[in-house]
Design a protein that fits this description.
This protein is of the alpha+beta class. About 40% of the residues lie in helices and about 30% in strands. It has one domain (about 5-120).
Length: about 120
C-alpha cells in the first residue's frame, strides 16, 4: 500500500476512535482502540514494536518501543497530553532514524478536535 494512502487511512481511523472515545483517557486506551480499528481494516499492524539501539556495531536492547507500526513503514506514536512538547517530535524522529523508516505520525488524543493533535513527521 502506498505510504500516503496508508497515512490517510490511519488518520481517518484515529479520527473515528477520537469521535467515539473523546479526549481525556489514558494513552493506552487510544493505542488499543486504534490498533483494533487498523487491524479490523486488514492493515498489517504491530503494537509495541521493539526498536534496538546500535552502538559501535552492537545491537543493544534498551526497551525502546514504537507504539504502532503500520505495514512495516508508518510509525504511529500515541500521546494523551495537554501539549505536544518538542521532545515528542524528537522521539518520533529517533524511531524513524533507528528503524530506517521514512514517515511517522505523532497523534495527541487529548484535544477537542483531533486534527489539532496530529503531526506528520518525515525523515
Amino acid at each position: 500500500m502506498d505510504i500516503n494512502v496508508l497515512t490517510q487511512k490511519v488518520i481517518g481511523l484515529a479520527m473515528e476512535v477520537h469521535s467515539i472515545l473523546g479526549p481525556g483517557l489514558l494513552e493506552s486506551a487510544y493505542k488499543e482502540s486504534l490498533f483494533y480499528k487498523i487491524r479490523k481494516e486488514g492493515i498489517f499492524i504491530e503494537k509495541e514494536k521493539p526498536v534496538p539501539l546500535r552502538l559501535e556495531g552492537v545491537k543493544l536492547e534498551c526497551g525502546y518501543r514504537i507504539d504502532l507500526l503500520a505495514e512495516n513503514k508508518l510509525v504511529v506514536e500515541i500521546k494523551s497530553v495537554d501539549n505536544l512538547h518538542p521532545l515528542y517530535i524528537a522521539q518520533v524522529l529517533t524511531y524513524l532514524r533507528l528503524g530506517n523508516y521514512k514517515l511517522g505520525l505523532l497523534i495527541n488524543f487529548n484535544v477537542l478536535h483531533l486534527r489539532d493533535g496530529i503531526k506528520r513527521i518525515i525523515l
